[in-house]
Design goal:
Strand content: under 5%
Distance between the termini: 132 Å
Order of helices and strands: HHHHHHHHHHHH
CATH superfamily of the domain at 190-319: Tetratricopeptide repeat domain
Largest sheet: none
CATH class of the domain at 190-319: Mainly Alpha
CATH architecture of the domain at 190-319: Alpha Horseshoe
CATH topology of the domain at 190-319: Serine Threonine Protein Phosphatase 5, Tetratricopeptide repeat
Length: 323
């Protein structure tokens, strides 16, 4: 028989450690469960915060929508009041108010009350009212509409009468239109001398149509002495303002080398190509015809392939239209 007095029995040591092992296992399980519970709590808290944020965002969007709708309604009500006030002033004889009403009705505007009829015909009475009250821009516009038959039958004589009133008040665009009407005898007796005077007034006021018309009349000697060198600065002023007719005329002058302008085929081509890109079909066609008179570019494609038939050089003054 063995004596255990001096040490533990080896066979009993593993059994003695089981309670400790079980205790540690329970501790780890408790820790793991606590960790899982904390994770779930954090996840629940995150879901709560996300839902809270979503709800608050929806509330903010709804409040913004309501505020925008209230603002829109207030704006519409204010516009309706302003529109009524504007019409009342126009009907009371205020020409500028009538001109504003005509512009809104002619082109449309979000400021107009829903259902307000818009268009050229609807604007015509208001425009006439403004014209009769002496508003130069309305007189000019009414004259253009009478000339083109917009919203009313064509009547060149009526157009001339209104353009004359507007030009007499210093409207530069109307003065340019007067030059066109007098030079072509549209709605009046042809009078180049008067046409030249109106063209000069429009040009000196800085209107590009007046500048190009006056330049052409100086160049041709219509209504007064011919002055080629004096015409060129006016054509150049109009060209600097983007006038395609001026580009066409300067291109021809540089091609021919006249009126004190040095012959320059390269510059002529550049100017004529610019004019050919015009949205005005008359100017574009004339420019293409003039381009056909230039020699082909060295190494370039012959213009013959474009099937452009050169036309005889003619005056373009009778084709001028003031927009």
């Amino acid at each position: 028989m063995l004596d255990n007095t001096y040490g533990p029995n080896p066979r009993s040591s593993s059994a003695d450690l089981r309670p400790l092992a079980n205790s540690l296992e329970n501790v780890f399980r408790s820790l793991a469960e606590a960790k899982r519970q904390r994770a779930e709590e954090k996840d629940a808290q995150a879901r709560f915060l996300i839902e809270l944020y979503r709800q608050r965002q929806q509330q903010a969007e709804e409040q913004a929508r309501i505020a925008a709708e209230e603002h829109r309604q207030a704006q519409l009500e204010r516009w309706a009041r302003e529109w009524d006030e504007l019409k009342q002033k126009a009907l009371g004889g205020d020409g500028q108010s009538a001109a504003h009403v005509a512009r809104f009705v002619r082109y449309g505007s979000p400021r107009l009350p829903k259902g307000t009829p818009v268009g050229e015909k609807e604007a015509l009475p208001w425009l006439r009212l403004a014209a009769e009250k002496g508003v130069a821009s309305a007189q000019h516009t009414f004259g253009l509409m009478a000339l083109e038959g917009v919203g009313q039958p064509k009547d060149a004589a009526v157009a001339f009468a209104w353009e004359s009133k507007a030009a007499g008040q210093g409207d530069a665009e109307a003065a340019a239109q007067m030059a066109y009407l007098l030079a072509t005898g549209t709605g009046c007796a042809q009078d180049f001398k008067q046409a030249r005077e109106w063209a000069r007034r429009s040009a000196e006021a800085g209107h590009p149509a007046g500048e190009v018309t006056y330049g052409l009349m100086l160049l041709r000697g219509d209504g007064g002495p011919s002055d080629g060198p004096g015409a060129v600065p006016w054509l150049r002023k109009a060209h600097r303002q983007g006038n395609a007719q001026a580009a066409l005329e300067l291109g021809i002058l540089h091609r021919e080398g006249r009126a004190g302008v040095e012959a320059n085929p390269g510059l002529a081509r550049s100017l004529l190509e610019e004019a050919a890109r015009s949205k005005d079909p008359t100017i574009s066609e004339s420019a293409r015809s003039e381009l056909a008179r230039l020699p082909a570019k060295p190494g370039g494609v012959s213009l013959d392939g474009l099937r452009i038939v050169p036309k005889p050089a003619t005056s373009r003054l009778d084709k001028l239209r003031i927009p």
